[in-house]
Fold:
Amino acid sequence: MKGVEGLVAAALLLVITVAGGLLLYNYVMNYLSLPQQYVSLKVVSAKIVVLDSTSSMLTIQVSNLGNIPANITGVTVYTRGGAYSVSLSNQVPAGSTIAINVGLNSTVTSAVVASSQVYISVNYTSNGSSGATDLVKVPVY
Structure:
């Protein structure tokens, strides 16, 4: 019995290789072209105004640079005395900026007044995942 001629075998291998390459190319291109959903929150501005010895107001502007909405679940205030979490319930639509006013209790206010530097981060959830913004230095007035 004779085998397949060398030239026919080479042509057959070339056809199989090209077909495999085309299939792989189509798969990769379709995968990369799927719309990616993401949230990208950024604190645009923030400030704390001390109202009296027992209360203060944190004002934050948060921008969602992503393409799906994000649910803000809280803010963490970092002082020399420690980290303080404040629960929130706000939604930031995709591509928009919102302003949030947060009343801070006497414990947080005392820590803010006693600290020379205050930082915050905003905690959020979206599509079952959670995250936090980068730390932002906050001026205290």
Notes: Strands lie at 41-52, 55-64, 70-79, 82-92, 97-104, 118-126, 129-132, 136-138. The mean pLDDT is 90. The helical segments are 6-33, 106-114. The longest strand covers residues 41-52.
